[in-house]
Amino acid sequence: MLTMVLWASAFVGIRYAGEDIRPGALALGRLFVGSVALLILLAVRREGLPPRAAWPGIAGAGVFWFGLYMVALNWGEQHTDAGTAALVVGTGPLLVALLAGTVLKEGFPRPLLVGLAVAFAGTALAGFSGSGGSSALWGVLLCLAAAAGHAVGVICQKPALGHASPLQVTAFGCAVGAVACLPFAGQLVDDLADAPATAVGAVVYLGLLPTALAFLTWAYALSRMSAGRLGATTYVVPALTVVLAWPVLGELPSLLAIAGGVLCLLGVGISRRRAAPAPAPAVTPEQTPAPEPAAGAAGGTGSPR
Hints:
Blueprint: H1 2-17, H2 23-45, H3 55-76, H4 82-89, H5 92-102, H6 110-128, H7 137-160, H8 166-180, H9 185-194, H10 197-222, H11 227-232, H12 237-249, H13 255-271
Helix pairs in contact: 1-10, 1-12, 2-3, 2-8, 2-9, 2-10, 3-7, 3-8, 4-6, 4-7, 4-12, 5-7, 6-12, 6-13, 8-10, 12-13
């Protein structure tokens, strides 16, 4: 839940900082702050480098989730409102569940599929309730790219957590994402020089909380449950985004947003239920084993000793 609240606040922070800092520069600044914080924590805990087997998953998560996702989302939110962005990015858990069922062999239990459908309906209501922005096709396509990066990143991250700790996977994944965004370093320097202190503070906030802390708590949870089931919990983010945008951006949540939030929570609850076990096969009389005879009752004439 902590992860979801912080990620919802990221949608608001991105819109706020995006007025003064360009998408790629914002992603690099956020990832740089997050990487520094996580690597300091890693050094304090003396966890060291992750084993070699974890690096393919860490690299994949770093490039697709920390890198592609953040740049595409920042860019998309410059062309569409927060509600629509949250709706489109909300398709990510569907992609996670589908990829997890095939790539990670997690299967498709009925509660997960029903919960995904209910939560997606809630996400649609919360997304369409958002106000502001142009909802341009280009912004929607960029948010779809962000959703795809999120899904691929989660699938890469899951096996890496089988070889390394959540802190190692998160810290080095964030660092890989920062390296991937280094081409935007010049933009970051120029934008920070002209940006107001509040925009710089938003970058620091995005790096410390929605990136360093939220991605760490996400990795901790992912190491203890399936990717498809955990991915469904992110459906609460659009509803939380609308609520958090009220005091910061002046967007008032509507009754439609509240209804969408209720459906999101309901869908998450359904997805976390365990599938009912298959009924045991009925035992016919022919299959019923005969009772064993009592000691000394079959054969022999003497009493048992």
